Amino acid sequence: MQIKKNISLKSYNTFGIEAKAQLLVNIESEEQLKEAYQSPKLMALPKLVLGGGSNILFTKNQRKAILKINIRGIDVLDQKDHEVRVKVGAGEIWHQFVLWCLDHNLGGVENLSLIPGTVGAAPVQNIGAYGVELKDVFDSLEAYEIKSGKIKLFNKEQCQFDYRNSFFKGRGKDQFVITSVTFKLSTQPRFDVSYGGIQRWLDEKGLELNIHNISESVIHIRQTKLPDPVKIGNAGSFFKNPIIEKPLHEALKLIYEDLPHYPLDSGSIKIPAAWLIEQCGWKGRRMDQIGVHERQPLVLVNYGGGKGLEILKLSEQIQISIQNKFGIELKTEVNIF
Ligand code: EPU
Fold first, then answer.
1. Where are the beta strands (DSSP E) in 9-149?
2. Residue 132 located in a structural domain
3. Most buried by CB count within 10 Å: which residue of 3, 93, 143, 305?
């Protein structure tokens, strides 16, 4: 088990925020994970589990020991008819796994191309984009239970997936560390082009509908809309799209006729936070080293040298203005430490 002391976390978070960790432990296997929780040396230390650092904002130096999960491996478990089950180590890079699926002609995750982060972090917030969510290809996962020191198997129901949410953000928070995820992929996938931009791009290019071209299309859309964290620090959507009830929606429609909205099966209505933020005049606003992205206002950015606390303050100002103008509470998607 590799332990580093007093280390900069700048390259461990896609916001590129400078913060120090007293201890950073590289975890390469389940055994090392057990050791980190059970060895007398590390047992008493509070811990923070880190995947790709793409959904986190550091606002201070970290006193907790950072456990960087690097458990690797992609293994085909079995195949039944067109369905192939693949078990993936939590530390694999999500997009590398998507590329592996494309290489092996396995469909299911092509709409989730280029999402930053690791496989182990993906179920925690049920990552989603362009009509597909992780839950749609999920079979099961294994997680280390901190209290018992045992590896537990979770099926889909037990994970309680919801929009950018799961058991691991709710009742299971801080109790488990995901070590592997098993996916159900398909050799004969159904394509999801419900997000209009995908089909438009394929038509424009004269490309046929297959997983490779869908992935290309998604990559193109993401690269046009979203900032590349390698060039401009960011953690993707900073806020979740708020879900409101009918009476508030009716009232808002009276005032804002063009209010974009997506009705949900539950009867509630999802409103794009990007629209609300733009209406409040934040789109493209820059304050020194930080700001609100010019093409996707749901994304807060660090142009270089920005501080975590500055980004937090900006996010709070945005929340207040949305609350005042629309009576809607914006919740953060990013985890703040
Ligand atoms: N919009 C604006 N102004 C803008 C941009 C968007 O008003 O500048 C409005 C438009 O009405 C647009 C709507 O917002 O139709 C939706 O925009 P977009 O398609 O870009 O999607 P989103 O709802 O803003 C969500 C996810 C993204 C994901 C996209 C595509 C959340 C919090 N975000 O964004 O996920 O890529 O859909 O499926 O659900 C992430 O989680 O980090 C992320 C980037």
1. 20-27, 47-50, 56-57, 62-69, 74-80, 83-89, 128-129, 132-133, 138-145
2. yes
3. 143
